[in-house]
Amino acid sequence: MWVTVESTRHSAERAADTAALAAASAAVHRLAAQSGPDPCASAALAAQQAGGTLTACTCTVLDCKVSVQRAMPFLGSLAVRLPALRGIGPVRAVSRAGPVGETGSGDIDGRGD
Whole-model pTM? Predict the structure, then answer.
């Protein structure tokens, strides 16, 4: 079970990193061309292709932050037989793509709370 949890955590982190990079790339292209795909839409697609689900996304000109979640793969059939596992939720990961050395506001939704 530990291997499954760790594998899912790494997978969620990889999906978050991929989504953040896709958002930042779209933001740069949008800035340069004054048109192009929405950065958060690009992040959602990248997260989905990496096996995750985008749950939050904020992008400024060159700083994108995303949150991605991924379900625990074994919980479907196993949770039926072991009710104690029903409380285990999805694995969440947060990633940022932006200028080095700047941390931004630290919030994922841009609300500052």
Answer: 0.74
